[in-house]
Amino acid sequence: MAIKTIGVLTSGGDAPGMNAAIRAVTRSGICNGFDVYGIYRGFEGLINGEIEHFTSESVSNIISRGGTILRTARSKSFMTPEGRKAAYEQMQKHGIDCLCVIGGNGSLTGAKIFAEEYNIPCIGLPGTIDNDLDGTDFTIGYDTTLNTIMQCVDKIRDTATSHERVFFVEVMGRDAGFLAQNSAIAAGAEAAIIPEEQTKEDQLAHYIGRGMRKSKSSSIVIVSESPKCGAMHYAKRLQKEYEGYDVRVSILGHLQRGGSPSARDRILASRLGVGAIQAIKEGQRNVMIGVKNNEIVYVPFSRAILGQKPMDKSLITVLDELSI
Ligand code: F6P
Question: Ligand 1 center to residue 174 CA distance, Å?
Fold first, then answer.
């Protein structure tokens, strides 16, 4: 059956550039003859019928805004068969025959289950600051967050240098170290402690072993968030196991997710939104639109959500060699 009506929603953690993606899906959808509906509060809003017909004006003046005009949620109800049934009924009620889901791993997992259960075409757009979706080089929001972290660390550097301190700066990323590793390179930090390297040698010992103490009077270590081994954990360990350091911790928290999206994120989101409509026209379903080597690609949901996106190991050498 030919698709006539597309619903667009944002789900999971907000990410800068989500608005640019909503705008792109809406306007490209309209340009290509589709009816577009905005669905508020992610899958939760779909279940509750929080659905609005979108015109080109509905997405005016939003490209520069962080967050998401559609709001977002991590819907518990959608994880249940009853919730998904209610969502399906709302789609039928509004005549929506295809869903564009802008979100991260959890959101695309939800989309995959829903698509399979009800035979609904779903298209995913990678919207997460974590950059952890497999099959795409970048996710919407990652670049802006990287820049935000870099700016924060630049400021922390002033205090670290003035007081000759060691700072452990904790950044987001869930189970992935892309934000930590790359912000460490961008901010000229002395080390990054990332989940991808956790099973190898002790990362704190590695950092100390590189002679940081001898060569520098202050340093900054970027630590990926972790319930057990976050910045606080390493700061305590450093004070206990090695003497003579003046140690501080800075947990950047949700400020990392806010702010006006970078040009790179706006362009990425715009390309992916147009790519999503193109994919629908081509009869694609249950794929995430990604960008690989600067080309738009279609990644099956099953691959995108694997949670095994590899970290380029050369980035570790780059940081190690440049932080002596
Ligand atoms: O997935 C985006 C993200 O910001 C992660 O980096 C972080 O672990 C999580 O969301 C935080 O979620 P919440 O905003 O629900 O605390």
Answer: 7
